[in-house]
Amino acid sequence: MKKLKIIHSLKFRLFLLIVIIGILPGFVLRFGILTSYENRAVANRSIDILSQAKMLGSQVVTYNYMADSSVEIINAQLEQLSNIYDGRVLIINNRFQIVKDTYGLDTGKTIISEEVVKSFQGEEINKYDAQNRYIELALPLNNKESQEALGVMLVSVSTDSIMMNYDYLKKNAQVIEMASAVLILALALFCSRHLVQPFRKLTKSLEEIQTEDEEDKLMISDYTETEAISDAFNEMLGRMRVIDESRQEFVSNVSHELKTPLTSMKVLADSLLGQEDVPAELYKEFMSDIAEEIERENKIINDLLSLVKMDKSAGSLNISAVNVNEMLELIMKRVRPIAEKQNIELVLESFRPVSAEIDEVKLSLALTNLVENAIKYNKPDGWVHVSLNADHKFFFVRVEDSGIGIPEEALEHIYERFFRADKSHSREIGGTGLGLAITRNAVLMHRGAIKAHSKEGEGTIFTVRIPLTYIA
To answer: Does any domain span residue 186?
Structure first.
């Protein structure tokens, strides 16, 4: 596992990349240069030999050497050509007999080969046998006047001298290549260590940062990438601190909200226990107050449970096609008794039939909270107007009331848990400060939006927009 970890590291990959880029071109260059040298040297040697052979061939024809092979001047030149190029020269007449062999091995013998036959047909043969390391030339010897084929000059020349130079160059190239490889490996090691250094600094800084210290910030600006990572981390760290502060505030608020009814109940119970012969009327009054505090505690716990359930099931809505008109009528029917107690006029106006893909339970709870709030925070003999409309993409629910309104400075905080714009009034009507937080969560889970407009003393308008088709 440790070996695999090293292989997947950026340092190792940079090292490997630099080594490949540094060493591979050297191999390719060496192969290319040596191959080019060999081809060029062989081509030059072939041209030189062909030039000498043509001149000598012309003299062979002129002196009619095929008829009289004792011509000293020709023999001397043939031996000279053979010695200079470390080769073998054969002179073959038109009966395919070897008239002259500079090696003295096959004189008088008959030779019939593909090269000889092609040369008698007027073709010049020039080929290189790389495996056996020799150049072979076959040159036709024709009568200058009649162009009659009198014979063939066959020249075989060793390329050992060329290959000696080739091997010498190859050894030198390998030495240079090895030295270069050592330098490249050292450079690759240095560069890979140096290039990943900012990432090491980044890792070390991340390990050292204490999230509780608000002054700690990550800033590694060696590369654009490390700077971008630093900025993203600082942004995430800021959000985490906000979340942590929000969590601490939420825990504090929950503790306070749950503790308050318990404190009231304890005070009432202690008052009863501290008195003797408590009148039945007082006992009944105190027990009634305790029951109210228990009901209030129960409300807070239920709302907290609803909020927790929504947080946990954010990705698991029970989506189905729902008739939104019927859902709103059912909500109005449920809250109508509450409105009648306060003599609040409740009106539902549907502009068109609406069917949408929603989680009926969660969205019904959200809209119920809005309508209940509009009733609870209303004025005596007030009104609540609920309307439903839709376009081709969304449906809109508008909840408007004639209530006490929300102060302008409090509007941006109304969705915070346990926030109350009017704490005293909220206590009187038994609000927990969680209703709008639950509503907003449910709306956002449906990829929707909620907006509030209010004027203190005149009323509040909540507008909810939900997509007709749910997109996961």
So the answer is: no
pLDDT, one tens digit per residue, over 276-308 is 777 777 778 778 878 877 876 776 676 666 666
Q: Are residues 334 and 306 in the same domain?
A: no
Burial of residue 139, with CB atoms counted within 10 A of its CB: 0-12 exposed, 13-18 middle, 19 or more buried: buried
Residues 443 and 340 in one domain: yes
Edge-to-edge order in the sheet of strand 125-129: 98-101, 87-93, 149-158, 134-142, 125-129
Q: End of a domain among 166, 184, 204? A: 166
Encoded amino acid at 128, one letter:
Y
Read off the CATH number of the domain in which 158 is found.
3.30.450.20
Taking CB atoms within 8 Å and a gap of at least 24, the contacts of 324-331 are 324/354, 324/355, 324/356, 324/358, 324/388, 324/395, 324/397, 325/350, 325/353, 325/354, 325/388, 327/360, 327/363, 327/364, 327/367, 328/367, 328/386, 328/388, 328/397, 330/364, 331/364, 331/367, 331/368, 331/371
Q: Quickly state the pLDDT bin for 33 (edges 50, 70, 90).
A: confident
Q: With contact defined as beta carbons under 8 Å apart, do 369 and 386 qualify? A: no
Secondary structure (3-state) at 72: helix
Residue linked to tokens 């027990």: 287
Closest Cα to residue 306, out of 414, 462, 426, 436? Answer: 436
Classified as helix, coil or strand, 85 is: coil
* Global pTM value: 0.46
Residue 183 in any domain: the answer is no
> Could you give the CA distance from residue 360 to residue 317 in angstroms, rounded to a whole number?
9
The one-letter code for the residue type at 87 is G
User: What is the rounded average pLDDT of the residues 253-263?
Assistant: 64
**In this structure, is residue 179 part of a structural domain?**
no
**Range(s) of the domain holding residue 157:** 2-166
57 and 100 fall within a common domain: yes
Question: Do the bridges between strand 98-101 and strand 383-390 make them parallel or antiparallel, or are there none, so unpaired?
Answer: unpaired
297, 331: one domain: no
